[in-house]
């Protein structure tokens, strides 16, 4: 099981960079994590599914 990481409210850009370094992430790495999490959430909720009017059921 993964260890919990303490949550802090960050207000300055330097704070963000320091916190990312503590987690072993670069800004690009963090953005990739956010992207993957958002895609996974959308897949779970069906938000990325093609609207029904564009689906061809039975073909």
Q: Supply Rg.
A: 18 Å
Largest sheet: none
- Which structural class do you get from the secondary structure elements? mainly alpha
Strand percentage: under 5%
Helix content bin: 40-55%
Compressed to H and E, one letter per element, the order equals HH
Mean pLDDT equals 75
**Beta strand count:** 0
> What separation lies between the terminal Cα atoms?
45 Å
Low-confidence stretches: 54-59
Number of helices: 2
Q: Would you spell out the secondary-structure blueprint of this structure?
A:
Blueprint: H1 13-22, H2 27-45
Descriptors:
49% helix, mainly alpha, single chain, 59 residues
Explain what the structure shows.
It is a single chain. The chain is built from 2 helices and no strands. Helices cover 49% and strands 0% of the residues. The chain is extended, with a radius of gyration of 18 Å. It has 59 residues and is mainly alpha-helical. The protein has helices spanning 13-22, 27-45.
């Amino acid at each position: 099981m993964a260890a919990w990481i303490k949550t802090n409210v960050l207000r300055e850009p330097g704070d963000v960079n320091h916190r990312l370094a503590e987690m072993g992430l670069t800004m690009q790495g963090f953005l990739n994590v956010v992207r993957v999490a958002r895609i996974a959430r959308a897949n779970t909720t069906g938000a990325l599914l093609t609207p029904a009017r564009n689906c061809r059921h039975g073909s």
